[in-house]
Amino acid sequence: MEERSDVKEIDRRHKEALVRAEASVAQVSAQAARDPLRLHYHLMAPAYWVNDPCGLVEFRGEYHLFYQFNPYAPVWGHMHWGHARSRDLIHWEHLPIALAPSEPYDIHPRGGIFTGCAMADGEELKVIYCGSTGEGSDLRQVQCLAVSRDGIHFTKDADNPVIAGPPPEGSANFRDPNIWKHDGHWYMVLGTCRDGKGKAVLYRSEDMKHWEYKSVLAESDGTLGTMWECPDFFPLEDKYVLLFSPMGLGAVKGIYLVGDLDYETGRFTWQTRGEMDYGCEYYAPQTFEDSQGRRIMFGWLNSWEWMPWFQDFGPTVQQNWCGAISLPRMLSLDQTGHLRFTPVREAESLREEHFHWEPAVLHPGERLIAHKAGGVSLEIALTCDLQRTTAGEFGLILRGNETTGRQTVLRYITKTGELVFDRSRADGCSAQGSRCSCPADALGRISFRVYVDSSCVEVYGNEGQVCMTNRIYPDAGCTQTEVYVKDGSADIVSLDVWTLKSIWQADAGDCDPQEG
Ligand code: FRU
User: Fold this and answer.
1) How close is the Cα of 241 to the center of ligand 1, in Å?
2) What is the dihedral of CA 354, 396, 413, 388, to 10 degrees?
C-alpha cells in the first residue's frame, strides 16, 4: 500500500528531531557516566533529564520502558520519550530515543511529548501520548497516537491528535493517557481537573484512534488533590485499582484507591485508600501486566514540589544528569484490601556476596557493623522481634563515614511504630526526610528490606506494606553500614546483607544487557 505523502513528511521531520536529540545526548554521556553518584542497578538515561516512566509494556517477550526525557539539558523541558528494553526487568539496554517533538501539536520548549502508555495490538506496538503546547492560559494538551512495527521506530499518526481537547468536566490540564482492553473495547483514563478538584475521565474506542468520551471515572472530594497526574487504572484480583499522582497535597505524592468499576455508568466507587510511597522522591508511577500475570509498577526517583520548581534536584545536575527509575515493584492486595508492593524476584539476580547474622540481642552502645566498606550498592534485610525489644529506637546507619560524621539513618521508633528516614547529616544538601507509620505484623515483628544504590535508598517495610524512597548525595567516602540501638536492647531475628552488582558497564554510560 502506498504511504500517504503527509505521513512521509511527518516521518521525515520526526527522524530529524530524533537525530538532533541523539547527537545532543552523545556529547555529554561520557561525563555523566563518570559521576560517582550514578546508580548501579537502577535505570537512568545516558545523560540529561529523566522524569516519569511511561509506556510500560511487554512486547514480543521483552519488556519496554519509556521515560520522560529532555535530551538537551539536565532540567525539565522539550519532553521526548527515552527508551530502554529488558529481558528480566532489571538489566536494561538503551534503545534509540522513541519519540521527539516535531509537530505543531507536540512541539514546545516547556511542553512536548508528555507521559502516556503503550499497548501491543496484533503485530504492532501502539503508544498514546499527550502532546503539550503553550503554557498558562495558552496551554493545550491533546492525545496522540504513534505506531511501531519493530518496537523501536515509531510513526506518528497522520490524523493526530486523536483526542483534540478535554471533555466539559475537564480543563486544559488534560494529560497522561492510560489504556486497557475489556470485552473487546479499548478504554482510556486521563488526568484532568476543574474548580480545584483533580479527576480521572474515561474514554472508549474500538480502534484506538476514534475515542468517545464516557464519564468522570472518579474525582477528588476536595481532599485528594487539585489535579490528578498520571492516573493508572487496572483490575487486581477481584477489584479495580486507581493510582494517581495528586498535585497540591504537599508531602502526599501518590494515592491509590481500591474499589469497583461499573462499566455501564463508567463510575468507579472505592472503599480503600492508601499511599504508594512515603518517601520524598517517588512520583508518577505507572504499572503494566506482564505475560506471567503480574502487575508491575515503576516510578520516577524524584518528585515535584519538595524543592522549588525547576531549581534544585540535587548535585547530579552539575554532572549533566538528573532523574532515574525505581526498581520494579509487584502489586498485590492484602487481607485488608490495601496494596502491597514487593520487589520482583528477578531483583535477586543482582546479589553478589552474602553476609548472614544469627539471631542476636543488640545492647545500648553496641553497634553491629553490617558492612565496613563498599556499602554503596547493597540489599539489607532486617527483622526484629518487637515483643522482645526494649529499645526506644533502633535502625540502620547507611552510607556512613565515622571521620566526617556523614550518615543517613533509617530509624524505627518503637513507641509510635514510626519509620523515619533521616538525611539531615547525609550530605550537606538534602533537606527534610520522611516518615510513616509501620506497625508490627501479626507476629509482633517488624522487617525492612532496604536497597542502597549510591544516591538512592528504597525501603520496603513489613514485606511491602509501606514503601519509602529517598535520594541522598553523600561523597564516595561514605561507605559504612551499621545496625544501631538506643535506649534499650533490640532483638534481632535475622540480618542479611548482599552486595549488589552493577547493571552497567564500568567504562560507559551504555547499558550492558547481561544474562539474567
Ligand atoms: C508528572 C508530569 C505529567 C506530565 C509529565 C511531563 O511528573 O507532570 O503529568 O505528563 O510529567 O513531563
Assistant:
1) 20
2) 40
Q: Which of 11, 35, 52, 496 is catalytic?
A: 52
SS3 call for 468: strand
In tens, the pLDDT along 453-495 reads 999 999 999 999 999 999 999 999 999 999 999 999 999 999 9
pLDDT level of residue 9 (50, 70, 90 thresholds): very high
Confidence of residue 506 (pLDDT cuts 50, 70, 90): low
> What is the average per-residue pLDDT within 258-266?
98
pLDDT digits (tens, 9 = 90+) for 333-392: 999 999 999 999 999 999 999 999 989 999 988 888 877 767 899 999 999 999 999 999
For 11-59, the DSSP string reads HHHHHHHHHHHHHHHHHHHHHHHT-TTS-SSSB--SSEEEEEEEEEEEE
> What's domain 348-508's architecture?
Sandwich (2.60)
Of all protein residues, whose CA lies closest to atom 12 belonging to ligand 1?
114
> Right CATH number for 5-333 from 2.60.120.10, 2.115.10.20, 2.120.10.30, 2.30.30.60?
2.115.10.20
Q: Is the CB of 227 under 6 A from ligand 1?
A: no
Nine-digit cell string for 453: 544504590
Distance 236 CA to ligand 1 centre (A): 25
C-alpha distances in angstroms, 248 versus 140, 220, 245? 21, 12, 10
User: Which stretch of DSSP H or E encloses residue 490?
Assistant: strand 490-500
Nearest-atom number in ligand 1 for the CA of 79 is 12
Mean of the pLDDT values across residues 405-428?
A: 96
| Closest C-alpha to ligand 1, atom 9 | 229
Quick one: which atom of ligand 1 is closest to the CA of 230? Answer: 9
Each domain of the chain, given as residue ranges in start order, spans: 5-333, 348-508
Neighbours of 69 (CB within 10 A): 30
Query: Considering the entire predicted model, what is its pTM?
Result: 0.96
For ligand 1, the distance from its centroid to the CA atom of residue 206, given in whole angstroms, is 27
Which grid coordinates belong to 332? 498485590
pLDDT of the residue at 2: 54
Is 52 a catalytic site residue?
A: yes
